User: Which sequence fits this backbone?
């Protein structure tokens, strides 16, 4: 069983000009990233069944991310702000800087940028940061061969 320190997750976002090509690497700003996948349960119980039975329905997901704010052109806050109300492509890898493989796959999906926190968390003597959760607007694809 592989156990690893989860402090090197890589995250790339697409630019607003090219929403299908992940190109802005925001990994150095990310302090937490979570992909949560859910599938609908469709009941398929018949009269002869002794218990409820279910089949897979449509899937949905959310992508939650905590990051340190950076408003410089082309960085995390400016990219998300420019994409507000639009869809961005996202690419995530568990261990950045390591080859993509079956034990270190990449995850590709798109998010609907449906919320922002222009003035994020951060009080006196604290680092300015944001915590956002996005609706995934596609299927989450897991690949052991698509490069990060």
Assistant:
């Amino acid at each position: 069983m592989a156990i690893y320190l989860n402090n090197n997750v890589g995250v790339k976002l697409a630019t607003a000009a090219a929403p299908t090509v992940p190109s802005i690497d925001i990994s150095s700003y990310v302090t937490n990233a979570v992909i949560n996948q859910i599938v609908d349960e469709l009941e398929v119980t018949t009269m002869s069944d002794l218990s409820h039975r279910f089949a897979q329905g449509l899937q949905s997901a959310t992508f939650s991310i905590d990051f340190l704010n950076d408003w410089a052109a082309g960085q995390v806050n400016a990219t998300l702000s420019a994409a507000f109300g639009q869809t961005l492509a996202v690419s995530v890898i568990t261990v950045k800087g390591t080859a993509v493989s079956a034990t270190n796959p990449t995850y590709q999906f798109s998010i609907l940028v449906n919320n922002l926190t222009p003035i994020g968390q951060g009080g006196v003597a604290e680092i300015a940061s944001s915590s956002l959760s996005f609706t995934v607007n596609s299927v989450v694809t897991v690949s052991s061969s698509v490069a990060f």
Observations:
- The mean pLDDT is 89.
- The longest helix spans residues 76-82.
- The beta strands are 10-14, 22-25, 30-43, 54-68, 87-93, 106-112, 129-136, 141-143.
- Residues 69 and 124 are 15 Å apart (CA to CA).
